[in-house]
Amino acid sequence: MTDIKSIQRLLVVQTVYEQTLNKNREDIKVEELFSDIIKQSSYKDKLKKSNLNFAKELYIGLKNNNAEIDKKLLSSLNNKNKVKTMDKLLLSIFKVAIFELIFQENISKKIVISEYLMIANRFFEDSEIGLLNGVLDNLQKFPDKK
């Protein structure tokens, strides 16, 4: 994962994940959240010259559309209770990916799916990756926009 946008996607996923684990972090400015994660990351040198505008756009868009994203995710799962037991990191990946698929119209849906599958591949086994792929693929085919 070397492309700056790919790393910024991972940064947003990590930020959302951190906030699910630590509710005290929800009121902290996004720049501070990003900075804290970048300091501890292996990709800090790659982001030195980045203004992180893409990551901020994703994060703010996700926060502003969280209820709609949750509805999309629930409607995309056969087992609605799966969300309650889903790994928090996988849930974070789903949320950011769904935001980008549904609300960002200036990028190829296939690229978006590929990017989030690469992120998931860093952390999960085939069954979780398959679930992510299936849900995102269905959403891109039948987006039922906003």
Give a quick set of tags describing it.
mainly alpha; 0% strand; 146 residues
Layout of helices and strands:
Elements: H1 4-21, H2 30-39, H3 53-64, H4 66-76, H5 82-85, H6 88-103, H7 109-121, H8 126-141
Helix pairs in contact: 1-2, 1-3, 1-6, 3-6, 4-6, 6-7, 6-8, 7-8
Helix content: 55-70%
Count of DSSP-assigned helices: 8
Average pLDDT, rounded to a whole number, is 88
The structural class is mainly alpha
Q: Outline the biggest β-sheet.
A: none
Radius of gyration: 14 Å
Morphology call: globular
N to C succession of SSEs: HHHHHHHH
Number of strands: 0
Characterization of this structure:
- With 146 residues, the protein is mainly α.
- It contains 8 helices and no strands.
- Helix 1 crosses helix 2, helix 3 packs across helix 6 and helix 4 packs across helix 6 (88-103).
Question: How would you summarize what this structure contains?
Answer:
With 146 residues, the chain is mostly helical. The protein has helices spanning 4-21, 30-39, 53-64, 66-76, 82-85, 88-103, 109-121, 126-141. The protein is globular and about 40 Å long.
